[in-house]
Amino acid sequence: MPDKKGSASKIKMHSVDELFGIGGEGGSHAREHIKDIEITELSPFKDHPFRVLDDEKMKETVESIHGYGVLNPIIVRPKQPHGYEIIAGHRRKRACEILGFDKIPCIIRELSDEEATIIMVDSNIQRDELLYSEKAFAYRMKLEAIKKQGKRRDLTSCQIDTKLKGKTSAESIAEEMGESRKQIYRYIRLTYLIKPLLNMVDDKRIPFNAGGELSYLQPGEQEMLLKAIETYSVFPNLAQSAKMRKLSSEGRLDETGMELVLTGTKPQQASIKLHRKKLNDYFPENYSSEQIEEVIYELLRQWSAGHGAEPQN
User: Fold this and answer.
1) How crowded is the C-beta side of 238, counted as CA atoms within 13 Å?
2) Residues facing 109 on adjacent strands
3) Where do the DSSP E strands lie in 31-187?
4) Is the backbone peptide bond immediately before 81 cis, with ω within 30 degrees of 0?
């Protein structure tokens, strides 16, 4: 097995350092060092939005580390009261667990919450086959971190400050990701969906843009929609989702309206059947159906008047 610590100590994280202004003149190399850390001391990033699956990609990572060691050490920061929080390298840490490693080479870096969030997102966002929900929560976390950096100037590096000059936070993220600002916000809207509906967007049973429209429904309305989907086995398209959003904004979205939007038909009214054999116990045999019906209606009118209820035409 190659000397993992030796190879890791030669790694220079130029791309990350250059992106976040870490290193060089005025950088923060003084705040970091490389060390082999016990895997049991490592904790995942809080609210880490990306999946760590034992899939084919993980198998490839395991095989690579088994053959060459951890060539690219993971980035961590000290965690209070003890241990370390993983910033970048959750998959590598999992691969080392599968291989039975006790330790893994880590770059220990002193980072603010905002700096840590931005590095965590940027080190994962370019991965293949990300779910809509993974991108959605990642963009939201990064946007909030950049906005906080803007308010706390002491935490904003020179390069990030320059990058944001004259741009909104969303515009900066959009430029980096090759997306439009509106598309970034469309992703972030998905984070306001309840989990079962968000799963349906990830599974592409609900279209991406339809999910954005549904995210404007109140949580209770979303729960009602989930029940309607399960009842009628119909998934809303974009036009239906936009209609429900409009009804919700007007305070007119109820179960009946939701069913009408989803199925295109009004709920069927409950029908009542009166059996002639049973009615014959109360009416002469020579009474026609029309005569029986008239007597019944007359009795209902009397009952309604006696109970203070008005007949509805």
Assistant:
1) 3
2) 32
3) 32-38, 42-43, 74-78, 84-88, 103-109
4) yes
Are 245 and 217 in contact by the 8 Å Cβ rule? The answer is: yes
297 Cβ contact list (under 8 Å, min separation 6): none
Q: Which residues on neighbouring strands pair with residue 172, listed in sequence order?
A: none
The C-alpha atoms of residue 203 and residue 131 are separated, in whole angstroms, by: 9
Length of the chain: 313
CA distance 235 to 229: 6
Question: From CA 86, how far away is CA 44, in angstroms rounded?
Answer: 5
Given the structure tokens 């020179």, which residue do they identify? 158
User: Average pLDDT of 55-75?
Assistant: 96
Region for 292 from its dihedrals, namely left if φ exceeds 0, alpha if ψ lies in -120 to 50, beta otherwise: alpha
Query: What whole-number distance in Å separates Cα of residue 105 and Cα of residue 8?
Result: 7
**Candidate from 10-14, 50-54, 305-309 with smallest mean pLDDT:** 10-14
**In the structure, what pLDDT confidence band is assigned to residue 154 with cuts at 50, 70 and 90?**
very low
Among the listed ranges 69-73, 163-167, 193-197, which one has the minimum average pLDDT value? 163-167
**116: part of which helix (H) or strand (E)?**
helix 113-122
- DSSP characters for 32-50? EEEEEEEGGGEEPPTT--S
From residue 311, give the alpha-carbon distance in Å to each of 28, 76, 273, 292, 304: 81, 74, 20, 19, 7
Residue 2 predicted with pLDDT over 60: no
